[in-house]
Amino acid sequence: MPNDLAFADNSRLARNKTPPPRITKRIREAIDVMVERGLDFQAAAHEAKLTTRHMRMQLAKPHVIAYYREQCQVFRASTTARNILRLCQIRDAENNMPAVNAIKALEQLSDEQTNTKQTTSPGVTIRIVNVSATPVQHEQTTISANADETPTSEP
Hints:
By secondary structure, the chain is mostly helical. Helix content is 50%, strand content 4%. It has helices at 25-37, 41-47, 52-59, 62-92, 97-114; strands at residues 140-142, 152-154. It has a two-stranded antiparallel ribbon with strand order 1-2.
């Protein structure tokens, strides 16, 4: 019997084991509509025959958000080839800088999302901040050599 072994996998026998979270077919359809056609979650919920509240509650769950981000990544990867083809067409055509800037922004967007790791460099950072526009004037106190006189204040 394999269950008698010392290192056998007995996880199926555990009573408190919960199954992995699932995404229903309608939620998948709604997310696919959001990603592929650019609809907001309300219109996508209506199209998948869901209530807006149910869709919003599902989008608050981590495994649903993970599926949404995964689908966005797949969609972005599928449009990259089209962006390259469009850039080649623009290169050969007349001045069309807005389209070039949009494609550049799309490409940088995918780079930003994959490189979200914040790295800190060693060293000290000194920030000089000018808080007030007018310099603050301090009172200057002069003390005479004689100890019996009181200090005078000059503006």
